[in-house]
């Protein structure tokens, strides 16, 4: 076996059904009693219900979390937290809500309890991405790692079917990049392979039967496992491209991951053959790139950047931005090849 370095992150994870009832005890376990509940506008009702359940342990609800963590939204939420004297945040939602909790923690050190309701995986990472003046920048700091993660499978039953598919592929992207990361190691390989398999098996079931508890449970567990990979290794071209398209062109997060993943895998496969063979095997497909493309397309997910509203004339600028401050990547980054990758993704071509 090759020598390796593995850096595990501390995590307190509560996983199950009906675990939302654990939020109150967990707030108290942190020595807190003035929680600010965070949600997106779309999950206000769930946030209000949680606030009511928490009774005197919750001081308020801020329900304007926004995708890609714009700093103006963070500043508004911070004012609310300060005005209410919040001593912790409880983020109930997908990556946007968890991102807001992290952005608040970055600036205040308030502890976070996060209740993920999508498969994006932000809860298990020290990564915070923020968008200001149309540019999304990311940093890694332990300050943003949530203290407690509560996974309640019941809360994922309402995740719309298309978002279930794209968010599941978003989780897979973390595992794929972990397999060929410069920090890859046998532990994250095991997690990545397990995560890809759980999600690949769960998504076709959820496409037909979104209320299937067993498949929901597998998908959420797979999402956590994939997120744990993301939390411990360096990310590469795929995430860089998604941040570029999300931050600068405001494309939706999980859909962008879904469209780009087959193409970034195809770009990297010649330089990461062992890793992408593992990914293919975990998917149960002969080729990882085609396996992800077929899985997404067959389950009705978007498969072209054109479908996401990307403009063809912006592809060149996207390639330029992706070349700036590149992340370490198995395949060397060449602007013309990147542009051709983006064109294939724009057209929705099945990778060769
Ligand atoms: P999201 O959080 O924006 O959710 C999309 C929509 O789905 C929202 O309206 C949300 O309220 C709704 N939703 C979520 N769960 C639901 C449920 N169970 N039922 C009904 N509606 C539900 O999208 P996302 O894809 O989860 O997260 C994307 C954001 O997360 C991006 O900003 C991305 O950069 C960030 N992210 C960060 C990291 C990290 O490590 N820092 C990792 C992954 C994603």
From TrEMBL:
What InterPro entries does the annotation carry?
Answer: ADH_Fe/GldA (IPR001670), ADH_Fe_C (IPR056798), Alcohol_dehydrogenase_Fe (IPR039697), MAR (IPR034786)
Q: Name one Pfam family in it.
A: Fe-ADH
Domain of life the protein comes from: Eukaryota
Decide whether keyword Kinase is in the record: no
Q: Which Gene3D superfamilies match?
A: 3.40.50.1970, Dehydroquinate synthase-like - alpha domain
GO-annotated molecular function: alcohol dehydrogenase (NAD+) activity; maleylacetate reductase activity; metal ion binding
- Family of this protein: Belongs to the iron-containing alcohol dehydrogenase family.
Name of the protein this chain belongs to: Iron-containing alcohol dehydrogenase
């Amino acid at each position: 076996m090759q020598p390796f370095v593995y850096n595990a992150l501390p995590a307190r994870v509560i996983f199950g059904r009906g675990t939302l009832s654990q939020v109150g005890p967990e707030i108290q376990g942190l020595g807190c009693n003035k929680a600010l509940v965070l949600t997106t506008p779309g999950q206000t009702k769930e946030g209000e219900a949680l606030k009511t359940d928490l009774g005197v342990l919750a001081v308020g609800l801020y329900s304007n979390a926004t995708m890609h963590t714009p700093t103006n939204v963070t500043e508004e939420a911070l004012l609310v937290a300060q005005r209410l004297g919040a001593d912790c945040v409880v983020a109930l939602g997908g990556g946007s809500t968890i991102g807001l909790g992290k952005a608040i923690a970055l600036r205040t050190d308030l502890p976070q309890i996060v209740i993920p309701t999508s498969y994006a995986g932000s809860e298990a990472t020290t990564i915070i991405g923020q968008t200001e003046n149309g540019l999304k920048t990311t940093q890694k700091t332990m300050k943003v790692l949530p203290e407690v993660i509560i996974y309640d499978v019941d809360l994922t039953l309402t995740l719309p079917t298309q978002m279930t598919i794209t968010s599941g592929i978003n989780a897979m992207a973390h595992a794929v990049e972990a397999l060929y990361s410069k920090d890859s190691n046998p532990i994250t390989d095991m997690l990545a392979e397990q995560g890809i398999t759980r999600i690949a098996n769960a998504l076709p079931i959820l496409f037909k039967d979104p209320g299937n508890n067993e498949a929901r449970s597998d998908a959420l567990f797979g999402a956590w496992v994939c997120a744990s990979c993301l939390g411990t290794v360096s990310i590469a071209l795929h995430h860089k491209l998604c941040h570029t398209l999300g931050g600068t062109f405001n494309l939706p997060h999980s859909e962008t991951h879904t469209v780009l993943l087959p193409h970034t895998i195809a770009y990297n496969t010649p330089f990461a053959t062992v890793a992408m063979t593992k990914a293919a095997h975990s998917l149960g497909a002969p080729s990882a790139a085609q396996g992800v493309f077929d899985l997404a397309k067959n389950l009705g997910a978007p498969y072209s950047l054109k479908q996401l509203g990307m403009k063809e004339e912006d592809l060149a600028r996207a390639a330029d931005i992706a070349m700036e401050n590149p992340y370490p990547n198995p395949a060397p980054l060449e602007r013309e090849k990147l542009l051709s990758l983006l064109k294939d993704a724009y057209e929705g071509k099945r990778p060769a």
